[in-house]
Design brief:
heterodimer; A: 407 residues; alpha/beta; Rossmann fold; seven-stranded mixed β-sheet; B: 320 residues; eight-stranded mixed β-sheet; two-stranded antiparallel sheet
Chain lengths: 407, 320
Amino acid sequence: MAFDKMELRDTEVWDGNLAAAHALRQCQVDVVSAYPITPSTPIVEGYAKFKSDNYVEGEFIMVESEHAAMSGCIGAAAAGGRVATATSSQGLALMAETLYQASGMRLPIILNIVNRALAAPLNVNGDHSDMYLVRDSGWIQFDAFSPQEAYDLNFIAFKVAEDHEVRTPAVINQDGFMTSHTAQGVKTMDDDTAFNFVGEFKPMNDMLDFEHPVTHGVQTEEDWHFEHKARQHNDMMTIVPQKIDAVFEEFAKLTGRKYNQIEKYDMDDADVAVVCMGTSVETAREVAKEMREKGIKAGVVGIRVFRPFPFMAIAEALKDVKAVAALDRSAPGGTAGALFNEIAGSLFNSDSKIVLSGYIYGLGGRDLTKRHLVDLYTELQANADAGKVLTQQQQFIGVRGPKLAYL
Amino acid sequence: MSEMKKIKNLKEFSTSADRFEGANLLCPGCAHSIIVREVLNATNDDLVLAASTGCLEVCTAVYPYTSWDASWIHIGFENSSTAVAGAEAMYKALKIKGRLKQPDRNPKFVAFGGDGASYDIGFQWISGCMERNHDMMYIVLDNEVYANTGGQRSSSTPIGSSATTTPSGSVSYGETKNKKDMMSIMAAHNIPYAAQVAPNKWKDMVKKIQKGFATEGAVFINAVSPCTTEWKFDPKDTMHLTDLATDSLVFPLYEVIDGHELNITYRPKEKDIVPVEEYLAAQGRFKHLFKDQYKYLIKEWQERVDANWVYLNRREEARV
């Protein structure tokens, strides 16, 4: 039974979850092995409905846990085909073991993470704790700031991950609820155009090629483990960024929508800048624009590719900036925020005289308001004028009780 | 439908083309390799194999070597079942989509796990696979202990066995819990086929494996795998130990079809049934049970085995 194509309007009103589900449908994924969890559930439900209505030809397995979901994805990917799933938060935490296995085995699986806080206390709302939990898992990590981007980045992710020189799994992050459940206009591709962009899956070392039996998931100890990991890192540092740029370019030619490893907004002459991820990027852009009207030369850097981390691009973007803030949406657990550390690492050995401060915000779905950002930019301008961080290096935004500041 | 492999005698069987190579790191006398060879040699069809972390896995795929001349995957301790289920799903998808490289083949999907990987840590994954009825076979290499990590108890470790986490001592007879009845639990998933096998009864085993391969849907196999290292017996006695296990009825050989139809497939003659005491006495892990203070446990062992045998016979008679 051949599957049906779906007629889409040029612009559909989709939330991030539905956008991701449509992208998986259009990529003609061979196996989806999944388990539902808030707020990513509608991706899985949407895909299930497509399957029920004959818009999907591949296999769809509803397994009994997120760990099993990724285990099934790994088995399916090693068998040789296009594989994807979705999860959030606790589900990602349960899945964590297998994420390292997927990347270590060089299996190009696509995982949509709808970002949500990690318990305890239990919380279903958006923050980036789950994204940070698996940041060193060897997966390529894209970050979508809107439903449109959640849609587009899926196609880009498949094309990058499945490249035979890359063969690395990829995550597309989107903010829980703020992106996943907020319907916006999404410019679509028709089914053929979308599929042709990612193309037919080209298997490599596939278990279903019985003429060439392969062994997947071997043991290596002190004699070989390091070489494997080093080579993988080497590819992440050298091959993957180039492939990502090439696919961004190709996608721009097709759709007119150009993505970059970091998304710069008003950075050309910025004195002060905010670096952040997710939906906060849009809020920061709006406030930056308003700050310019008040005479503060504000800019925004949104992290589009969290792994491999665009060190050089960050250093370049911030080289003439006087004060920058790293916004981390995850409880730092006794140190600086991850983004703060990454940016500090990007700038430390440069000639830049920039001063860096870190802000923890938005945990468990707490709003980051324009007011917060106005205050933040004002603080950054003061730092810029003084040539040093006038506050402590780490502050909390929007938390009740006495002001919290450290370092 | 694939052709059933005809096996006339043990010589012919043992000289079948090996897809599991003798070059592996398993202990001399380990029953795992015997079981695996018996499974792989039961078919000429292509195989997609998975192994959970454990003795079989660490001894057969140490980079840059492999003992497997068939597609093989290891992910983690708990998920060989789901790994093979995922591969089977991909096979189905590519078949529908017409993208199989060798569309005329009829591959079999088989996962192996030890009892630790199966009775304990991978229990949920296996249950999920059985419930969803993937066209696959899950085989437990049941040596009743975490042998790979040096002999810790699992929920398959039988009562009175001395394991490193339940050692016998001045006030302990070792493991205090009864072995988990995995066969009943798996059969209760109403899967088309579940069977307990032993490598010494190779004809019975091959028949069951072939039946399993011919079955569409999920198959569960529990294979007794005497462990020379942890059961503490001479490596040359593996088959003798297996004989004691089956002939004492500690490991009765039977099958359950569609979750209810139970058939006993090996029924030693009354006079040939070995006392459980003999089975226990042949293994160092039960040595302490022969001290006066714990001898009552041997009696209890015999009673438990007898009761189980009666239960299996009544199940078989009842046909329900």
